[in-house]
Amino acid sequence: MTYDVLIIGSGLSGLAAGIRLAHFDKKVCIVEKHIEVGGLNSFYQRKNRTFDVGLHAMTNYTPKGVRTSPLGKLLKQLRFRHEDFQLCPQHMSEIRFPEKSLRFTNEFEFFVQEVAEQFPSQIDAFRKLVRKIETFDEIDLEGDTRTSASTVLKSFLSDPVLIDMLCCPLMFYGNAREGDMDFYQFVIMFKSIFMEGLAKPEKGMHFLLSLLVEKYKAAGGELRMGAEVESINAGRGKVESVTLKGGETLAAETVISSMGYVETLKRCLPEMSEVETWPTGQLSFMESLFVLNQEPRNLGFDKSIVFFSTRPRFEYRVPQDLIDITSGVLCCSNNFDYSEPPKEGLLRLTNLACFSGWNALLRKDYVQAKKQWRTQALDSILTFFPDFRDSVVFLDSFTPKTIQKYTGHLNGAVYGSPRKVKNGATPVKNLFICGTDQGFLGIIGATLSGISMANLHVLQKQLGTQ
Ligand SMILES: Cc1cc2nc3c(=O)[nH]c(=O)nc-3n(C[C@H](O)[C@H](O)[C@H](O)COP(=O)(O)OP(=O)(O)OC[C@H]3O[C@@H](n4cnc5c(N)ncnc54)[C@H](O)[C@@H]3O)c2cc1C
After folding, report:
1. pTM for this predicted structure
2. Could you say which of 357, 372, 407 is where a domain stops?
3. For residue 331, which atom of ligand 1 is closest to its CA?
4. Banded model confidence at residue 63, pLDDT cuts 50, 70, 90
């Protein structure tokens, strides 16, 4: 049997591509190496609790009825109703630096007022920057990917602290590049976080992923778990089949891979020369989860998410140490507009982390280092946040090494390679990529990436005739 399309990976982009193709009656199969779906945004169990791996918040939140936003388009293309996702908007989030703080909600004008109050000399320039962002076509698949955000920001704003404060959340939530950001990516993230907003699905990623899997299977899609692709057999510049670990071979007319660009080409036989020169992603995180015996609000945590830097200037780089304790994201999962309050309190702390450092440690040193760096990260933020340590009833941390192990992304790079392939093409004619390395990041971004790559490379003719 030959599949019309074989999709590698059951993360958000792979599932979305699968649903889209199955809806158009394609014979489609998703192969996933792991035993759970979700990839970078999956879930896991510890001590009878289910934790989301990567969910702080869904970006791009728009309310029901807004059809032209990325969320509205995604729902329409995958045939969901807004209420199916059970999204709970954020209360209020904050960018906290030593001298300044900027709060934001899902109402963009509130953020503009904050900038006006905190940076009065910059507000006119900021409004001009916003106009540029509003008119920029960031999702053009053939568009410019090389302009630097830092160059554009400096051409509008003269206060480096404001530039750093704007970049801090956008980089933490979607930047694969050290020190700077591609301007189109800055625009994507600016719109998705500040101009649209943040929300959480009431029942977490397990629920959201189950919805996607049900939709996919109901449309006739096949999902094979524990099925790792060992090689993509691409003789004469065209994929003929893929071989799974264990030896089984599956034939397909088209293959869409969400593994990552280099990760995909590394599996190609014969090997592609790009593998040698293509930049691999380096940026990854250590994430610590703290379950509390009370509402975080009672301890003084009233924001949904705080993006912070304990130093006046923010640096987004792979740290020299195992983690960078001077900046991070503190997410308070309780502070979203749930219909029922969660049973326990949960805080998540994210710090930039160095894959090679973690990877070099022996097992016993690795366990010890996780404890030690978690303690240091906490000590560092206690000048900035209330002390919650006495209320912790359970804690867990994972590192870039865990991320690589469970998702296959080289270096545990959460946002993949700094060089994106917006049209998803590879040197192999019928092999395309979607997801992280295509360039649409995060939960909504990856989902839209799967949809757009399915539309562009498989459904184009059908969509054109409809
Ligand atoms: C700690 C953390 C926090 C995050 N927080 C947020 C957040 O708050 N909000 C947000 O919007 N986004 C967040 N993200 C980012 C978001 O999770 C990702 O951008 C998105 O999930 C990427 O989806 P994807 O489909 O592109 O890739 P992936 O999810 O990586 O999917 C790729 C899949 O391919 C599978 N695979 C790999 N190799 C093979 C192989 N050889 N054979 C078969 N299968 C294979 C993997 O197992 C994986 O399931 C976070 C990520 C992390 C790690």
Report:
1. 0.95
2. 407
3. 8
4. very high
